[in-house]
Amino acid sequence: MLEQTQHDGAVQVRHSLLVAVCRRDLTKDLGAVDVAPLGDDRFRREFLDIASSHRVLGLALSVISRAWAHRGLAAYGTPFDDLLRKARRRAAVYGLQRDRVVTALLSRGVRPVILKGTALAITIYDEPCDRDLLDLDILVREDQLEQSEQVLGAQGYRGPTSPETYLAYRRRHFHIPLERSNAHIVELHWALTMPGAPFQLDATEVLAQSTPLERRGQPVLFLPRPEHTLLHIVIENLQEGFSRLSRLVDVDRIVASTPGMDWELVVAAAREGNLTSAAAESLELGRRLLGTTVPDGVLRELRPGPVARFHLAIMRPDRSFLSRRCEGRRSTKDLHELWLVGGVRKRLLLLRQMLVFDPAITFPRKTRPGVLVRLWRLGKLFAVQLFFYIVAAVDQVTPFERTETRSRRVR
User: Fold this and answer.
1) Disulfide: which of 67, 156, 194, 361 matches 30 by Cβ 3.0-4.6 Å?
2) Is the CA virtual torsion 384, 387, 391, 396 positive or negative?
3) Domain coordinates in residue numbering, the chain
4) C-alpha to C-alpha distance for 101 and 139, rounded to whole angstroms
């Protein structure tokens, strides 16, 4: 038990340090006490592993390297400096690939809009390597999808080789993965969510309202407006089960870098796409963990009803986020989504989808699950909900936990 307690305490220290290096208001004030544990080889390796799992490794390396240089702690800086140089090289290679893809599409009359981290890395971060990137996300008009595939095919990119798999992506998904040797995967989007998904963001509006980013000597890049990018990151939070700190960092920096944010548009688009509760939780988690400044009136307009707020609060969203509890746990992730859906009717419709839906992209589509499978899935959901009820009941034993439960509710 003592060993487990010590392990949990070390994990908490690593999480606290990780959150600290991701906060805009603290990164310039990190002192020797904050970074001292990184002098231990084991702690440093485990911290870097956690940062990588949350996809904020580049940001952590950059912030700590700058802080140590500022504080004169260069003795600790060598391993981080080496890793940072590698991260900067990767970011530079990624930028070259992005520009070549965009140039090829523009030359054939396609107006691609770059999405998510691809756009954010060069607009809201101090340097591109601060935003970890795994693939290149591009949105095009659906009527230009085939042309875009041909253009990128001439550049050496290849999509699914099986016609059945390709059709499965077109019918059941929202992007086609294109691969090329020694290059990042290009995800060619024509939509932003799967057909029939309970949470939606209108891709045609994102395309229509995108704006150009002019760069001297480099191809123009078309970016979504910040309000749409913010909601797209909210969707990413949903798809990943609120398990990546990088998404909260994105939210925090989008808000901070957009003083003229059109919050009325955010609220309206969130309502239209059933994203109000998910947006509220994303913004509230950003406020709690990273100090994101959001108008109180916006959170009031977005927040779910009292019953949903209670159930979301007992799931301890901040702890869940840092521990990535929902990742790989379908029942916990599904339960979280159920309480983020607005209204009983929509919740029941989503529950029905969860009982019969298989998220794998396969073709031909798998047969409908039998009664026993659906009952098993339903039973797991009830068991997970019961677990959170029990934990919440135990928490009420102490005044501190009662206060924490109330404070966790989306305001």
Assistant:
1) 67
2) positive
3) 2-76, 90-408
4) 12
DSSP string for 357-388: ---S--SSPPPPP-HHHHHHHHHHHHHHHHHH
Burial class (CB in 10 A: 0-12, 13-18, 19+), 29: exposed
Q: Please state, in angstroms and rounded to a whole number, the distance separating the CA atoms of residues 145 and 143.
A: 6
Closest CA to 21 of 47, 49, 43, 41: 47
Tokens of 3: 């060993």
Q: Which CATH code is given to the segment(s) 90-408?
A: 3.30.460.40
Q: Which of 86, 6, 78 is nearest to 41 (CA)?
A: 78
Residue in this structure with the two tokens 């959001």, named with its chain if needed: 294
Query: Do the Cβ atoms of 184 and 171 come closer than 8 Å?
Result: no
Q: Which amino acid is at 310?
A: F
End-to-end CA distance of the chain: 37
pLDDT in tens, 358-389: 655 555 555 667 888 889 989 999 999 999 99
